[in-house]
Amino acid sequence: MNLILLGAPGAGKGTQAEMISKHLNIPTISTGNIIRAALKSGTEMGLKAKSYMDAGQLVPDEVVIGIISERLKEEDCQNGFILDGFPRTIPQAEALDSMGIVIDKVIDIEVPDEKIAARMSGRRVCENCGTSYHLLYKIPREEGKCNECGGTLVQRKDDHPDTVLKRLTEYHNQTEPLKGYYEKQGKLFIVEGQEEVADTTALTFKALEA
Ligand code: ADP
Ligand code: ZN
């Protein structure tokens, strides 16, 4: 199954992607994580992306399209994949189509803006492997440490309140039109984000079976 997870920054796409990934045994491809990894290892692409990311803006289409087209060619994607954070613009969706990639379903996790801002302040991410946590909703077993690799949990620069507002504006302007794009193709499934992660996951799994 080839899936796309849509939703505002902080809506919980990443968490749902992880659940589906375990359930269906297919990889999650997160453009955000790939860019952060490139940044950490100081590649040219990472440096180019940094200024956009820190300002809460989208990285240029050609950069992320390049990343995705390379990543989807890898062996582990041949039996299906979950795209978390791609596409985020209409040209990115068109690029997927022109690569000949057939998407089966698009799951859109909906959370109102007011809730997003509050949630994002509690978000933490593993500095080492990129797994995300939340101080209220997805608490690590040991405070400040990653369950998966023991890495240190940090707050992302772009999760600071001012940047969050910019990212929400980018989402409404550039990413939300994708709902219409995929609805026309009959692929859009809307999941209302719930207070409890497990409740959202139950709705996500229902959408997968629909
Ligand atoms: P979130 O989903 O919470 O916004 P991500 O980790 O997916 O977090 O993305 C963080 C940042 O990485 C974005 O704000 C943007 O700058 C950049 N980015 C990730 N994916 C894309 C994409 N498909 N197109 C453009 N920029 C992207
Ligand atoms: Zn980790």
Protein traits:
alpha/beta; 210 residues; three-stranded antiparallel sheet; 46% helix; globular; binds zinc ion; binds adenosine-5'-diphosphate; five-stranded parallel sheet
Quick structural overview:
With 210 residues, the chain is α/β, with parallel strands linked by helices. 46% of the residues lie in helices and 16% in strands.
What can you tell me about this protein's structure?
It is a single chain. By secondary structure, the protein is α/β, with parallel strands linked by helices. The protein has 9 helices and 8 strands. It has helices at residues 13-24, 31-40, 44-54, 61-71, 90-98, 113-120, 161-175, 177-184, 197-209, and strands at 2-7, 28-30, 81-84, 105-110, 123-126, 132-134, 153-154, 188-192. It has a 5-stranded parallel sheet with strand order 2-3-1-4-8, sandwiched between helices. It has a 3-stranded antiparallel sheet with strand order 6-5-7, with no helix packed on it. A hairpin with a 5-residue loop joins strand 5 (123-126) and strand 6 (132-134). Helix 1 crosses helix 9 (197-209). The radius of gyration is 16 Å and the shape is globular. The two termini are 13 Å apart. The model has no long low-confidence stretch (mean pLDDT 93). Bound molecules: adenosine-5'-diphosphate and zinc ion (ZN). Zinc ion binds next to loops.
